[in-house]
Amino acid sequence: QVQLVESGGGLVQAGGSLRLSCAASGIIFSINGMAWYRQAPGKARELVATITSGGTTTYADSVKGRFTISRDNAKNALYLQMNSLKPEDTAVYYCNAGVNRWGQGTQVTVSS
């Protein structure tokens, strides 16, 4: 059974930083492509960043240069370092491990 558990969300002022974590179990993490998505109130869920099993990363234009996705295969963990946060980054952030493999989400709120 796949389980993804996010943590690290919270309330931060604009310009601040947060680091999200996702603990994965029930999958062979090291060979799995992973991603972070987010969903703001009243909006569709959107892709934030991806990382392949080999460590290749991609980012949404809105977060390029501010967010960094990384993984630790020894710990079955996925991370999202978020710097220079903006109020428009406010959303629930979800860890994803493929089709229908989602965590429960962690709330990030950025105040202006």
Q: How would you describe this protein?
A:
The chain has 112 residues and is mainly beta. Helix content is 0%, strand content 50%. The chain contains no helices and 10 strands. The protein has strands at residues 3-7, 10-13, 18-25, 34-39, 46-51, 57-59, 67-72, 77-82, 91-96, 106-111. The strands form 2 sheets. A 6-stranded mixed β-sheet has the order 2-10-9-4-5-6, with no helix packed on it. A 4-stranded antiparallel β-sheet has the order 1-3-8-7, with no helix packed on it. The chain is globular, with a radius of gyration of 13 Å. The model has no long low-confidence stretch (mean pLDDT 96).
From the N-terminal CA to the C-terminal CA, the straight-line distance is 40 Å
Biggest sheet: strand arrangement? 2-10-9-4-5-6
Spans where pLDDT lies below 50 across 5 or more residues: none
Indicate the proportion of strand residues: over 45%
* Helix-strand pattern: EEEEEEEEEE
The coarse overall form would be globular
Category from helices, strands and their pairing: mainly beta
Biggest pleated sheet:
6 strands, mixed
* Alpha-carbon Rg, integer: 13 Å
What is the number of helical segments per DSSP (H or I, 4+ residues)? 0
